[in-house]
Write a structure and sequence with these properties.
By secondary structure, this protein is α+β, with helices and mostly antiparallel strands. The chain has two domains: 6-126, Alpha-Beta Complex (Cathepsin B, Chain A); 134-172, no CATH class. 18% of the residues lie in helices and 37% in strands. It is built from three helices and nine strands. It starts with 19 loop residues before the first helix and ends with a strand.
Length: 175
C-alpha cells in the first residue's frame, strides 16, 4: 500500500486509498497466482449502505476510509466487518487500539467522527480448476525445486511447476 513511502507523498503511517486495490491484488498473486482478484472503490452515497451490507453478507470485509475527528479530512483506514441494520451502524476493526467499534453510517462532514469517505471492496475466485485441466492435457511446463534448480517430480519436497503462460503451481507430493 506504499504506507509511509515518502516518494509517493505519504507521511509516516499514511497510505492512499488508490493504492489499496493494487496492493491487495499483488499480494494475492504473490501468495497464490491461481486466484483471480477484483477490487472496486465505493464512494459514500445514498446507495453505499446497501453496497456495504452486500459485501459483509458475502463474508467480504472492506477497507473504509474515514475522518476520525470530524474535521472533514480523511485520516484513517478501518476494516469493516459487520453492521446493525436497525441502527444503521457499521462495525469495524480499528488498528489504532486493536478493538472492534460501531459507528453511525454517515458521510464525512464537519463534526461527524468516523464519517465515511468511501471503501474498498475485494473479491477472489479460484482458478484451480482451469489449472488442473491444463495439467491433465499435459501442457508444457518445467519443474524446479525451492532453490530454483530443474528437477524431476520428487516426493515430500516443495516443487514449483512453471508453465509456458507464466503461471506457477506450487506442489508437495506426499509419500
Amino acid at each position: 500500500m506504499k504506507t509511509s513511502s515518502s516518494v509517493c507523498g505519504n507521511y509516516w503511517g499514511w497510505s492512499w486509498a488508490s493504492d489499496i486495490g493494487s496492493a491487495f491484488e499483488n499480494y494475492v498473486y504473490f501468495r497464490n497466482s491461481n486466484y483471480i482478484t477484483n477490487t472496486e472503490y465505493e464512494y459514500f452515497s445514498s446507495n453505499s449502505w446497501d453496497e456495504y451490507k452486500i459485501e459483509i453478507d458475502n463474508n467480504r470485509p472492506v477497507i473504509i476510509l474515514v475522518d476520525t475527528d470530524g474535521d472533514d479530512l480523511t485520516d484513517h483506514f478501518v476494516v469493516g466487518i459487520g453492521y446493525d441494520d436497525v441502527s444503521q451502524e457499521f462495525d469495524c476493526y480499528d488498528t489504532w487500539d486493536n478493538n472492534i467499534h460501531s459507528y453511525k453510517w454517515s458521510g464525512m462532514a464537519s463534526g461527524i467522527n468516523y464519517g465515511i469517505y468511501g471503501f474498498n471492496k475485494f473479491s477472489l475466485s479460484n482458478n484451480v480448476t482451469a489449472l488442473d485441466n491444463r495439467i491433465e492435457k499435459e501442457g508444457k511446463y518445467k519443474v524446479i525445486d525451492i532453490l530454483g534448480r530443474r528437477t524431476k517430480k520428487i516426493k515430500n519436497q516443495p516443487l514449483f511447476y512453471i508453465y509456458d503462460d507464466g503461471t506457477v503451481q506450487k506442489k508437495i507430493i506426499l509419500d
